[in-house]
Design brief:
This protein is α/β, with parallel strands linked by helices and about 400 residues long. About 30% of the residues lie in helices and about 25% in strands.
Length: about 400
């Protein structure tokens, strides 16, 4: 276990890291809780880095850099995989006022654990912990056990990579994005996590993240500092179609759904059936399941043709669209037409605020002239029609 005390330099690399957040004694006669916490972590075999916002025992004449303790603390809290908030509050000796601020700053970071000891006044922090699904523990030992379980073997990160917490580092969406950066010869010099979204009943599955990176761009010999990276799981989409002699009459299956970001004259999104999974599932199974959920038809996975995987909105989000196609027969097409205005969706009818989609069958001409689909969906439709036998593009 490597212990980094206040104002000391962070290591050049680590596999896992913890910050011990909580009240710090301001008088020599007040005992700190952190030495016992460090002893407990060592006994449990923790072999990562621990950031301790207290002076190293026995240190003298510590040089305080520009920004002082607040700058150091904020920096290392940002690069910690987990922040263990242990708050044995005592208004006379350990008031934990700074801890309150730090807890609020990192409440939605996805890496906080909270220990409000029994009988200690922490009602408001407990309320915030409940709101953001932050795990709470009655003893530091219980919190330490959970921390070690979450961190597991960790993952080696060096330099700017240490600013990416394990729960983002381990996602496919991050590794796909970062892999493309390193393949291009670029380097992550630093990063700040700006926002995360976890999903699932217990909010335990990482879905979307935003970071503000500092990237050394190999092809330009400069650093790019003024952009963010938004990532989510890749989307699988399917062009379900029936080819006609006149390509303009080719019929294509769309789904109509209300989505809050919509910005068109109908107030609904018109798109290809499809979706994503926050877990590492087989794309062909994802598209088969999504077609079944959204339009109500079961298509054997052998009928889907993989077209390509390409980035959907390269200046905005790093995710790809994985495009499939399947040609329908007349019986399938007629049934889908009969489903117009009948809602489908994984959440329907059990969740009134969730997914509710409607099947629409339109000709290529209607899609082109109606202007209802966005450019990404229109491009995917054109790609399939262009590649189908006898197709000539859009």
């Amino acid at each position: 276990m490597e212990i980094i005390y206040s104002l000391e330099e962070a290591p050049h690399s680590f596999s896992k890291s913890i910050f011990l957040a909580g009240p710090t004694p301001r008088r020599a006669d007040v005992q700190s809780w952190r030495p016992k916490a460090l002893e407990l972590l060592a006994q449990k075999g923790y072999d990562g880095v621990v950031f301790v916002p207290e002076e190293r025992p026995g240190s003298v004449n510590t040089v305080i850099p520009d920004g002082g303790y607040p700058k150091w603390e904020h920096k290392v809290m940002g690069m910690s995989d987990l922040i263990l908030f242990w708050v044995p509050r005592d208004l006379a000796t350990l008031p934990a006022f700074t801890t309150n601020v730090e807890f609020g700053l990192f409440a939605n970071s996805g890496k906080s654990l909270f220990g409000p000891p029994n009988g200690i006044k922490n009602e408001y922090l407990s309320f915030i912990a409940d709101k953001f699904r932050i795990p709470q523990f009655d003893t530091f030992e219980m919190m330490a056990d959970e921390a070690l379980e979450i961190l597991g073997e960790g993952a080696i990160r060096t330099g700017g990579e240490m600013n990416i917490p394990l729960f983002i580092w381990s996602t496919k969406s991050f590794q796909d994005w970062y892999g493309s950066q390193t393949e291009a010869g670029n380097r992550l010099d630093s990063a700040e996590v700006k926002w995360i979204l976890k999903v699932g009943r217990n909010k335990d599955r990482m879905y979307c993240w935003i970071i503000h990176p500092n990237i050394s761009v190999a092809g330009e010999n400069r650093n790019k500092l003024n952009e963010i990276v938004i990532a989510r799981p890749d989307i699988c989409s399917a062009v379900l179609y029936k080819r006609r002699s006149d390509i303009e009459d080719t019929e294509i299956v769309l789904v109509r759904e209300f989505r809050s970001p919509v910005r068109n004259k109908t107030g609904f999104i018109w798109e290809l059936p499809g979706g994503s999974s926050p877990t590492a599932c087989d794309p062909i199974q994802i598209i088969s399941d999504e077609v079944q959920e959204e339009v109500g038809i079961n298509i054997d996975t052998m009928r889907f043709k993989l077209i390509a995987s390409k980035q959907m909105a390269g200046t905005f989000s790093s995710h790809h669209g994985i495009l499939y196609s399947a040609e329908l027969n007349e019986e399938e097409l007629d049934w889908l037409k009969s489903q117009k205005d009948i809602p489908h969706g994984a959440d329907y009818p059990h969740n009134p605020t969730g997914e509710r989609v409607y099947t629409e069958v339109l000709t290529l001409k209607e899609i082109r002239q109606g202007g209802l689909v966005d450019w990404s969906n229109y491009g995917m439709i054109c790609e399939v029609i262009h590649n189908s036998e006898g197709g000539h593009g859009c």
